[in-house]
Amino acid sequence: MTMTFDFKHKVVLITGAGGGLGYACAQAFAKAGAKIAITDISQEALDSAVADLQDTGAEVLGLLNDASDSADVNAMLDAIVARFGCLDIAVNNAGTATPLQEFHQVGEAEFDRVMGVNLKGVWLCMQAEIRQMLKQGSGRIVNMASATSRNTFPNASPYVTSKFAVAGLTRTVAVEYAERDIRINAICPGNVATPLVVSLVEDLSVLATKHAIKRLGTPEEVANGVMFLASDLSSFSTGSLLEVDGGWNAI
Amino acid sequence: MKLDHKVVLITGAGGGIGQAAVRKFVAEGAKVMLADLTTEVTQLLVNELGADLCACVAVDVTQDDQVENMVNACVKTFGGIDVFVANAGVEGEIGDIMSTDVSNLDKVLAVNVRGVWLGLHYVIPVMRDGGGGSIMITSSGAGVQGSPNTACYNTSKHAVIGLMRCAALEVAQFGIRVNTVNPGAVETRMMTAIEDGFAQAGAGDFKALVEAGTPLGRYGQPDEIANMMVFLGSDDSSYCTGGVYMVDGGNST
Q1: How far apart, in whole angstroms, are the C-alpha atoms of residue B175 and residue B219?
Q2: Closest to A3 measured CA to CA, from B5, B232, B14
Q3: Could you report the per-residue pLDDT of B11-37, keeping only the tens digit for each?
Q4: With an 8 Å Cβ cutoff, are A250 and B243 in contact?
Q5: CATH code, residues A11-188+218-244
Q6: Does A159 qualify as catalytic in the annotation?
Q7: Distance of alpha carbon A112 from alpha carbon A127, whole angstroms
Q8: What is d(CA B41, CA B164) in angstroms, rounded to the nearest whole number?
Q9: Is A136 within 8 Å of A86 (Cβ atoms)?
Q10: How far is A185 from chain B (nearest CA, A)?
């Protein structure tokens, strides 16, 4: 078996795929032959992503979805199973952040909003996904953690807190389902010039200096890691955190 | 293929993980220099895979001049080094610290740490002059966890993570990436030797202990480690450096 990714006939969910890393993952899986379900909280971003992916010949289901709302998440899973019959791979990518500000100034509502999407959203999505995967007898989950699941990022305390939590959640839930052929891993990207990052940081060149490689990552580089974890090439990996961070973690 | 036009140098190429990695590298289009203490096993692999794609060299990685010779042999045969896998390692004797002779520590550190350092020392300038590359060091689950009766081994595997991080920061400017691959227990000769060592030391049934502590409930296969090595050697991982890549069935969770 050579290592060219092949996801033909696989059903893949990517949350928050209207842009940024999620969209890059959707493109990569579509190119590798997967049937894909993508979600976003913005109808406009979702419609545009679905149209662009369909233009490449991919089979795509678009679902307007708030990952922090359990009813919404359960309806998402029902819709995927109704359309495709199963869910082989889930990439829990939907995430958000607050504008950069010092810890003592962060409003409680801002904290709740970030934790709601980044942590509770992953929690809810994993619950719905795993219930379906248990029925099937197998599944693969990749959570979008962050280099800030292990490192600091001053003035982004809600985001960093949520990403540390996603790492712990990933590791412990991976152990619970390891013997039922559900592998769960996370990916830890460094900074990538996604719409989210661009909206928060004025000078991207400062961000580049955080990384040993002295540049930002590309969405495709993150998608490569996600594909590796979602494929059978990583059959002995579960509960792992795969770094795609340009060496941030080593500094 | 993932490693087209790349030259790979791998130490410990005759071992369980080494052999699996060599086969994957060749299957992905690379030319491979197989280095090991002797060419007994590696020559057979070269014969099988083809002398146009592979060659082998004998090296004791603890010896400065031999490591230099190994690097030169790879450059002379294949014109450079794009991927270096510092994979040679020994498990040493099994036993607790108070009853182990210090010579065991010296021997394990000589191969597992000094040997890796020497490899980096001679490979980095070649990669720098070639415009970049990817280096990976075979660390271990034992590089991030403790366990009784394997202190020398675990110390060495922790040490190479520190070495890797420093190297990653030094050589990023040359377009060289440096990472560790950290296998859990894998079905190899080394693991059988560790199982025997535990039995002889009265330290319990190693395999049963490991399987019970591994969420996936089994040993890994050499191919599963080799897959990660191909990923880190390929351009798919172009933003990965300074990282610790666990392939351990969840054991370190």
Answers
A1: 35
A2: B232
A3: 999 999 999 999 999 999 999 999 999
A4: yes
A5: 3.40.50.720
A6: yes
A7: 20
A8: 28
A9: yes
A10: 9
Interchain contact B27–A (C-beta under 8 A): yes
**Are B216 and A236 a contacting pair at CB < 8 A?**
yes
Report pLDDT digits (tens) over A57-67.
Answer: 999 999 999 99
**What's the CA dihedral at B61, B65, B69, B72 to 10 degrees?**
110
> Domain containing B76: what range?
7-184+222-247
The pTM (predicted TM-score) of the whole model is 0.94
Residue ranges per structural domain of chain A = 11-188+218-244
Is there a contact between B252 and A239 if contact means CB atoms under 8 Å apart? yes
* CB of A187 closer than 8 Å to CB of A245: no
Number of domains in chain B: 1
Token pair 């993980």 is at which residue?
B17
Q: Look over chain A and give the mean of its residue pLDDT values, rounded to a whole number.
A: 96
Q: Give the whole-angstrom CA distance, residue B160 versus residue A142.
A: 28
Q: What's the rounded Cα separation, in Å, for the pair B38 and B125?
A: 26
Picking from B215, B244, B247, the nearest residue to A178 by CB comes out as: B215
With a cut of 70, list the residues of chain A below it in pLDDT: 1-3
How many C-beta atoms surround the C-beta of residue A29 within 10 A?
Answer: 29
Phi and psi dihedrals of B93, rounded to 5?
Answer: -85, 150
Q: Which residues contact A112 (CB under 8 A, 6 or more apart)?
A: none
Residues 6+ apart with CB under 8 A from A29: A7, A10, A12, A14, A36, A89, A227, A230
Distance CA(B21)–CA(B226), nearest Å, equals: 5
Of A23, A29, A123, A159, which residue is the catalytic one? Answer: A159
> Do A211 and A188 contact (CB within 8 A), yes or no?
no
